[in-house]
């Protein structure tokens, strides 16, 4: 709230829309404050005092108008509805930042390093982490450190609070950008924001700085529109600072903004605004980004390509995802209409936004077919990352398209909008719920990590360091970690997370190799083992993995402890499509279970590539070799083997198994021989 009030006071002094632009301004200037005091060597925690003092100074003799026009009240109401719809579509369901993807942990780690050292520009990195983190643009991390109150245990809550705030705030920014063209465009864009499929694309949440930059991008476009109309130096300076902070958060969205600013100002013959903001924003980037000159040089020379993203199939699939599938067909038609008509008869802003979108499409075509190195544009990693830059543009363009329909027939525009929202709602809701459900860092896990810290204290805990919650230990606590290796004598304790990291690379630690170690702490698939002591699985372990005869992937993924993709929604959509199977992505995988009864045989419902061989072991003993008879059909394997009460594990072995050539297990049934 302090940042929002701070931003409101700044916006009021600039004579821009204070209620709607103020929140973004508060975030931008607060981030700049943290960066600036850190650059001059002052501890970042003092930024709170400085921001509070600046807010008090700005608040002196503020003349706040008490009267708001009726039209604005209606528009504010529509924006409030748009923001509420963002929560409705997402079913008010938001978990803490995940551990599924490396990005979230990477960014949280940088925040922790800022807090621990008191500076954004730290030089020491813990042994378990890559030194490359020093070079990463620090804008997002400076903001999260501030929102966390410069306390490590609050980092995940700061990240999540910002994410939810952005979801609520993006419709207001879309409205501001659209309103500067025409009021109806602003209203359409606000409503469309939370129904635009690309906002739900599975990587959006993991790439948290990118999501923050969508907000700063729209704020920058709004200031660009105002600067072109107002031509005042104050707005041009604020435009330069805002777009500069965008570059310090991450350069990719900044590249697209510069293209938008270039097209728009050239078409309106207002080059002064473009040059002013370019010089100021580049200066902000050069001053506040570590190794900024290295970034600048690399941006000219780089032209990375990824075969899995830079190909015609991906190009078609991402366009279908965004404008055809997920109930987007009507909005997709609106976007096409906007691109055609805005280039034919639109103003400079409409043309600038349309040309920016088409520039991204050209970049994707270049990555896929031409492979021409274009300075800075080619530096964007691949077609996926390039297309994601269009995320904040799409609702604006679709709003422009709806406005053209609105001018011809209001009822038809209303039908496009309402029907489009209705048919897209169930798809987008599922996208969000599935993506959130793959997040495995929740309050229970946080409590477990804190308990681990209380037990281990300052002793080093060994963990996977990737694809698991254990790597959050040094972020949420002061307990040190070391990465898992063959030399397990490096640490006394071993932290294992068997819940299914959900990545396309296998989790490094197979729990079945450590069942003879003493269990110090166990909770719902999370283990803390004492490597120096031997022991047997405890009662809570046996209870958790207990089965009465059926191990069903549909009912619970807990038994699939090693070598499976259980949580990654994107991979589940792509592999074994249409089959509700646990996906085995590595040569050797493990299934852990316990029984309180005896059984005489095991039946496995399984799916795989025709002709591939599979070897099955129970508790380390070879049981059967099986060859798949169909191409990913539903097959049944029967194992005649005695299963006594207690803890057991199945090992499935099949060479050359990957996420591209997986094996699927749907159900395992333990049975007794009948008469």
The helix content is 40-55%
Task: Report the radius of gyration as a whole number of Å.
Answer: 27 Å
Q: Kindly estimate the percentage of residues that lie in beta strands according to DSSP.
A: 5-15%
What summary fits the major beta sheet? 6 strands, antiparallel
Q: What general form does the structure show?
A: globular
In total, the number of strands is 16
Name the poorly predicted regions.
Answer: none
Number of helices: 23
C-alpha termini separation? 72 Å
Query: Which class best fits the helix and strand makeup?
Result: alpha+beta
- Mean residue pLDDT: 91
Task: Please tell me about this protein's structure.
- By secondary structure, the chain is of the alpha+beta class.
- The protein is built from 23 helices and 16 strands.
- It has helices at 2-14, 18-39, 47-58, 70-89, 102-117, 139-147, 155-179, 183-193, 208-230, 233-249, 251-267, 271-288, 292-301, 312-323, 329-345, 348-370, 383-388, 393-408, 410-437, 443-456, 473-476, 539-544, 569-574, and strands spanning 461-463, 481-483, 493-497, 517-523, 526-534, 550-552, 560-562, 564-565, 582-584, 588-595, 599-607, 613-618, 621-627, 635-643, 646-653, 663-671.
- Helix 5 (102-117) packs across helix 6, helix 10 packs antiparallel against helix 11 (251-267) and helix 11 (251-267) packs antiparallel against helix 12.
Question: Quick summary of this structure?
Answer:
This protein has 23 helices and 16 strands.
Which key phrases capture this entry?
14% strand; 16 strands; 675 residues; five-stranded mixed β-sheet; alpha+beta
């Amino acid at each position: 709230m302090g940042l929002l009030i701070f931003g409101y006071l700044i916006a009021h002094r600039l004579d821009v829309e204070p209620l709607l632009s103020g929140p973004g301004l508060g975030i931008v200037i607060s981030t700049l404050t943290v960066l600036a005091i850190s650059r001059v060597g002052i501890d970042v925690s003092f930024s709170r005092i400085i921001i509070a003092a600046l807010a008090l100074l700005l608040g002196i003799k503020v003349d706040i108008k008490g009267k708001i026009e009726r039209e604005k009240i209606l528009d504010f109401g529509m924006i409030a509805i748009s923001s509420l719809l963002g929560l409705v579509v997402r079913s008010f369901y938001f978990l803490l930042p995940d551990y599924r993807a490396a990005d979230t942990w990477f960014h949280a780690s940088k925040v922790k390093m800022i807090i621990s050292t008191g500076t954004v520009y730290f030089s020491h990195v813990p042994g378990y982490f890559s030194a490359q983190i020093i070079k990463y643009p620090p804008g997002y991390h400076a903001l999260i450190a501030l929102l966390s109150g410069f306390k490590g245990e609050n980092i995940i809550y700061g990240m999540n609070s910002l994410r939810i705030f952005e979801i609520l705030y993006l419709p207001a920014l879309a409205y501001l950008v659209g309103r500067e063209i025409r009021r109806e465009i602003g209203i359409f864009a606000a409503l469309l924001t939370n129904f635009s499929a690309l906002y739900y694309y599975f990587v959006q949440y993991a790439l948290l700085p990118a999501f923050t930059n969508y907000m700063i991008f729209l704020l920058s476009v709004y200031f660009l529109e105002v600067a072109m109309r107002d031509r005042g130096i104050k707005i041009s300076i604020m435009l330069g600072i805002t777009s500069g902070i965008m570059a310090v958060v991450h350069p990719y969205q900044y590249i697209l903004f510069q293209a938008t600013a270039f097209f728009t100002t050239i078409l309106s013959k207002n080059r002064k605004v473009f040059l002013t903001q370019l010089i100021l924003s580049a200066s902000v980037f050069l001053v506040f980004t570590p190794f900024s000159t290295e970034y600048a040089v690399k941006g000219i020379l780089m032209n990375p390509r990824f075969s899995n993203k830079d190909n015609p199939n991906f190009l078609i699939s991402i366009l279908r995802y965004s404008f055809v599938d997920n109930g987007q067909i009507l909005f997709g038609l609106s976007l096409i209409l906007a691109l055609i008509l805005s280039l034919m008869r639109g103003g400079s802003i409409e043309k600038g936004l349309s040309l920016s979108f088409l520039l991204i499409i050209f970049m994707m075509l270049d990555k896929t077919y031409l492979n021409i190195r274009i300075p800075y544009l080619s530096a964007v990693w691949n077609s996926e990352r390039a297309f994601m830059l269009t995320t904040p543009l799409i609702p604006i363009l679709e709003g422009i398209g709806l406005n053209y329909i609105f001018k011809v027939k209001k009822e038809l525009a209303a039908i496009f909008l309402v029907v489009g929202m209705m048919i897209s709602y169930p798809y987008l809701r599922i996208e969000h719920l599935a993506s959130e459900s793959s997040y495995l860092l929740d309050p229970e896990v946080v409590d477990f990590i804190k308990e681990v810290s209380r037990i281990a204290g300052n002793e080093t805990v060994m963990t996977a360091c990737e694809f698991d919650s254990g790597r959050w230990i040094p972020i949420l606590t002061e307990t040190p970690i070391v990465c898992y290796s063959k030399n397990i004598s490096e640490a006394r304790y071993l932290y294992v997370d068997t819940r299914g990291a959900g990545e396309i690379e296998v989790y490094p630690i197979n729990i079945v190799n450590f069942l003879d170690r003493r269990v110090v702490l166990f909770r719902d698939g999370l283990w803390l083992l004492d490597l120096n002591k031997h022991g047997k699985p405890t009662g809570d372990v046996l209870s958790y993995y207990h089965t009465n005869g059926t191990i069903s992937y549909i009912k619970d993924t807990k038994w699939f402890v090693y070598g499976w993709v259980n949580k990654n929604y994107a991979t589940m959509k792509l592999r074994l499509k249409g089959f509700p199977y646990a996906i085995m992505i590595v040569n050797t995988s493990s299934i852990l279970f316990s029984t309180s009864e005896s059984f005489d045989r095991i039946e496995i419902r399984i799916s795989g590539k025709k002709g591939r061989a599979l070897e099955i072991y129970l508790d380390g003993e070879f049981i059967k070799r099986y060859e798949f008879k169909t191409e990913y059909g539903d097959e049944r394997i029967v194992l005649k083997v005695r299963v006594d009460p207690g803890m057991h594990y199945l090992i499935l072995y099949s060479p050359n198994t990957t996420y591209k050539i997986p094996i699927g297990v749907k159900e395992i049934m333990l049975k007794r021989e009948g008469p």
